[in-house]
Amino acid sequence: MSDKEHLIIFDTTLRDGEQSPGASMTRDEKLRIATALERLKVDVIEAGFPAASNGDFEAVQAVANTVKDSTVCGLARALERDIDRAGEALKGANAGRIHTFIATSPIHMEKKLKMSPDQVVDQAVTAVKRARQHCADVEFSPEDAGRSELDFLCRILEAVIEAGAGTVNIPDTVGYAVPHQFGSLIAQLRERIPNADKAVFSVHCHNDLGLAVANSLAAVQQGARQVECTVNGLGERAGNAALEEIVMSVRTRQDSFGCDTRLDTTQIVNCSRLVSGITGFPVQPNKAIVGANAFAHESGIHQDGVLKHRETYEIMRAQDVGWHQNRMVLGKHSGRNAFRVRLEEIGIHLDSVEELNEAFRRFKDLADKKHEIFDEDLQALVTDATLGAANERVKLISMRVCSETGETPRADVVLSLDGEEEPGAAIGGGPVDATFRAIESIVNSGTTLKLYSVNAITSGTDAQGEVTVRLEKGGQVVNGAGADTDIVIASAKAYLNALNKLDSVGQRAHPQTGDV
Prior knowledge:
Homodimer. By secondary structure, this protein is an alpha/beta fold.
């Protein structure tokens, strides 16, 4: 990359991605994803919003104390208490960054902040200077930059760069920009701000019009050298620019970009699967780069062309982003060491002997049910073994479901509730409905089921089903995930996983609201 400028990849899966309804993550889940992002060689990991809640503070602190090869970033509004809280959370980081922001569009300043432009500039400068007392690396964002006045943007960015911001990030907060306009904005800012050469220009684009990646790349062509993105494009509303699409676009189209990233792209698929498993957001089959069909060819003409010469219809190699052709051929007689080696070959690293033993036990159980075990099965198996393990108030002990033609389905379950076994039974419109009702007859959670979805992990009638359940209670929304060859059991696992998350995640403030 000696002849290419470095494009910094700023991953905000753990912060902005977590703002997707139901995508809240526990501390341990954030650590697993952060470790995977570090293996991916992401430059900056935005680990969360420390002032939002004690849980968010502890998660950012844990990531900062664990990650060594990536910069760990904490988000803070341009408020003294937010900045100090972020600084405290990042104390143990090998390399830390505070990312502070304040709104700059006329509508936000007048209606939300109720501040004058002069007051906003003063507060931004004060925030950057205070952040510099905690970290040498400070980033500033003018929220709703896409609807801000150009002259005012130039004024406030010049002031924060002078105050010590090494990165200035231009967010398309509401996903309203189009590529030629957004690229032009970056070009004008870099041209008009006198001290623009003293900061890295960054972009953070939302996908409300499906243009987040296109807008980000247009900005890169105009000199932006940091892109803020998320794995699988996760994020609130329609999501953020997808990390995998940004990275592979720049890597594949070197004729159009004068820069490249330092990422180990062979880790992309593993990161995608991990994030999908933990958040319960399945990846659509036709999703670019990481979708199951991304490198599949069904058309006879395409198949013929690929067989003769791969590049006739493929612009990337599947192996370059982490797709494997190998099947997991270990069976129920295979040993623990061979199982561990295969996990590591596909990018799954377990932190303790206990985690390995639990995953191996589940592998043996699965091998009794399935003749062939695929890499996708292993990813689901390990995710299923670790989801909610830190705080399982409710556990499934046993269940029996009866469903037959002409009869109302019935489910009988036994749960462990705070260490005590409790039986429950219910009838329902189907076996899954009956199971959920039987669980509720015991826990009486008071939740509302907002989403139930099933995704086949691999092909075949013996494939594992991956179930996602979304529950809501008192404004808090969580996702639960479960996998099993029996879809009803997978559904019960997902429901219980969501219930356990509801107890452990807790409430947090949104960074764009007023007070914590």
